[in-house]
Amino acid sequence: xxxxxxxTVDEYLAELPEERRAVMSAVRQLVNRHLPAGYxxxxxxxxxxxxxxxxxxxxxxxxxxxxxxxxxxxxxxxALYLTTCHENSAQDVVLRNAxxxxxxxxxxxxxCLRFKSLxxxxxxxxxxxxxxxPVDAYIAHYEASRARK
Length: 149
Description:
The protein is built from 5 helices and 6 strands, in the order ααββββαββαα. Helix 2 (18-34) packs across helix 4 (123-131). It is of the alpha+beta class. Strands 1-2-3-4-6-5 form a 6-stranded antiparallel sheet. It has one domain: Aspartate Aminotransferase, domain 1, CATH 3.90.1150.200.
């Protein structure tokens, strides 16, 4: 499934075969366990998203909530979008070093961590990356990035 039209996370998970639902549910629990207060879980962009609601921060360039983490079941893999892991960010360096130290292959684009099974993940490290950025810090980073443009 590349994108879903599900309106709720439960609907999205129900669309998946049992094995894929189990992986998605486990990663969802990982995110929810480490998520700083103020982010909300929702469906957006056809995937499970954790974002800052517009009621908290409405001044986005595209009038959409600021996305912090997202999770999707793609056709051949799963994708965990960690928006704070942009190139050379502190979180990106931590993640890359941890994978190298563990001898695991890191399949990552700009902020998209691709994995085929739960064994491909380092839950403690990913949880730390997710826990690392409170809402106010993420908003400050977003505003600073927009000021440079």
